[in-house]
Amino acid sequence: MAPAVIYSSQPDEVPLLLNKTGIKGEVSNGGTYDIKEDYAGDYRFAPIEEAQVSRAMIKRYFNLMYERAISDVVIIGAGSAGLSCAYHLAKTRPDLKVTIIEANVAPGGGAWLGGQLMTPMVVRKPADRFLEELGVPYEDEGAFVVVKHAALFTSTILSRVLSFPNVVLMNATAVEDLIVRPDPRGADGGQRVAGVVTNWTLVALNHDTQSCMDPNVITAPVIISATGHDGPMGAFSAKRLVSMGLLRELGNMRGLDMNRAEPTIVNGTREVAPGLIMTGMELSEHDGSNRMGPTFGAMMASGIKAAREAIRIFETSQIVDGKIVA
Fold first, then answer.
1. Cα–Cα distance between 162 and 86 in angstroms, integer?
2. Which run of H or E residues covers position 197?
3. Does residue 3 carry a pLDDT above 70?
4. What is the rounded average pLDDT of the residues 283-312?
5. How many CB atoms lie within 10 A of CB 289?
6. How far is CA 103 from CA 47, 76, 132, 226, 299, in A?
7. Is the peptide bond between 294 and the residue preceding it cis, with omega within 30 degrees of 0?
8. Is residue 303 within 8 Å of residue 212, measured between CB atoms?
9. Residues 233-266: pLDDT tens digits?
10. Fewer CB atoms inside 10 A, N or C side of the chain?
11. Ramachandran angles phi, psi of 112, nearest 5°
12. How far apart are the C-alpha atoms of 270 and 114, rounded to whole Å?
């Protein structure tokens, strides 16, 4: 059956297509309702009960939390590196459950603007190939390209990532700690990162004002940390590795040098501790490498390399119930 058609009161406008129920619909109690898409003053919505809205959100979100309590990959941070990693990982391995944890309400990290709150985004070649894959237009300046507004990249990749059925994003959620277990592949009591400890960000920010607000946990055989350079919640995993004895000290980020910084970040993207891959600017704090400032190609390429490192782990490990056993 063809979809029902409703005409606007303006005769010259194109007919608007509605769903197959047309103008009439039924509610759960057996009654009927009218809907109408009329922008001349008679727009009518289908009726709804407030409790229906709550139940629709609660059922889906908490079912999602239940299902992702065991994930395949957890990405900490949804900035440019984390999102690039999620895109490549989800596209290449649609069988993996990829769960992104982002502390802020708005994902995207610092990639909504360029440098000093200006809007253009500079990307050095060959990372422009990733922009082409995403369908983000740019101006070619020879050795680099310029996206007219950084938000065009971030909104595009965010939309593409969330369109993958195997990706879940939990924003306004903070990672408060890492789960650590004995490493079955190591010797001499080696430790392996095996998951994350989470809480609502607003709770995480108020542990000093309230008592005993315990967290939740998500286990995964691979954790990818993309929390950026040091800040309120930046370089989280790098700092936690130090405080729990898996890293002697932070390297601390060095001064700005674009030509040294970007290849160093991409080439240094790796598994920095068993089970924990580090990507993006967090590596500069971990390794003591230079910052690159307002150029974004390394964030994209580092994220892609982190995804490839995760795939390598899956291809060379025996995993049972979300745990690497051999």
1. 9
2. strand 191-200
3. no
4. 97
5. 20
6. 35, 9, 29, 12, 19
7. no
8. no
9. 789 999 999 999 999 999 999 999 999 999 999 9
10. N
11. -85, -15
12. 26
